Amino acid sequence: MTSDGLYLALLALHIAAGCTALAAAAVALAAAKGGALHGRAGRIYVAAMFAVGATTLLLVAIRPNLFLLTIGLFSVYLVFTGWRAGVVRDGRPRPLDRLATAAMLAVGLGMLALGAARTLGGPDHQGGAGHQGPVLLAFGAIGFVLALGDLRIGAARPVTGKRRIARHLTRMLAGTIATVTAAAVVNIHFLPSLAVWLGPTVLMTPVISWWNVRVLRGTAGGRPGVGLASAGRSGET
């Protein structure tokens, strides 16, 4: 198989995994939190997003694209930490979590540096795509701040109870935003690129904040995250 053929095959797998992740996310959001359907849909979503991340690495290995690589790593980190919040019930980070946090700190700094360079350099330094600099700055800042927060977990107190559920909710929904963003970038061409890249984040962040308030106050329906946590106890490593 030629490199072009391999690339197209991987791209097909990448798209299929992304579509699966979107469908699973919709089911998980609609299902009763803590129920069996929510847990199954959540596990499918995580697996599909990991497949998206793996195919992204392979795609950029064939056709290098630092912008897409960093965005992909950022998205996988969101899903990984959301999944870990669901399955690590005592809220204490393991070595794997520390490794992921360190990696995101490095990636976040890289995104900020690359974003600043491309923003200051203008479209000529972005392959003619003026949106890349601001997108890298925005997502790099979010990833770096989240990783800094994760670094402090365990030093003060573990994240348990409602705070753990809120963390699970925040990261999984943020990962869903990343998936929706990818779909929007591919399919929406009548809006400015920057609006398409950052629009889902701007629109959904208030929803995440509102839902977090409900969870922390104990007014959200169902038992958020219990299904995933119960089914994923083997992930407590």
Brief characterization of the structure:
The chain contains eight helices and no strands. The protein has 237 residues and is mainly α. Helix 1 packs across helix 6 (161-187).
Please tag this protein with its features.
237 residues, mainly alpha, 8 helices
Molecular structure report:
The protein has 237 residues and is mainly alpha-helical. 77% of the residues lie in helices and 0% in strands. The chain has eight helices and no strands. It has helices spanning 3-30, 36-62, 66-87, 95-121, 132-152, 161-187, 193-217, 226-231. Helix 1 runs antiparallel to helix 2 (36-62) and helix 6 (161-187) runs antiparallel to helix 7 (193-217). The chain is globular, with a radius of gyration of 18 Å. The N and C termini lie far apart (39 Å). Residues 222-235 have low confidence and may be disordered.
What count of helical segments does DSSP give?
A: 8
Main sheet makeup: none
The helix-and-strand class reads: mainly alpha
- The radius of gyration over CA amounts to 18 Å
- The coarse silhouette is globular
Q: How far apart are the first and last residues' alpha carbons, in Å?
A: 39 Å
* Residues in helices, as a percent range: over 70%
Average pLDDT taken over every residue? 83
Provide the succession of SSEs.
HHHHHHHH
- Low-confidence segments, given as residue ranges, are 222-235
Strand content: under 5%
Q: How many β-strands, per DSSP?
A: 0
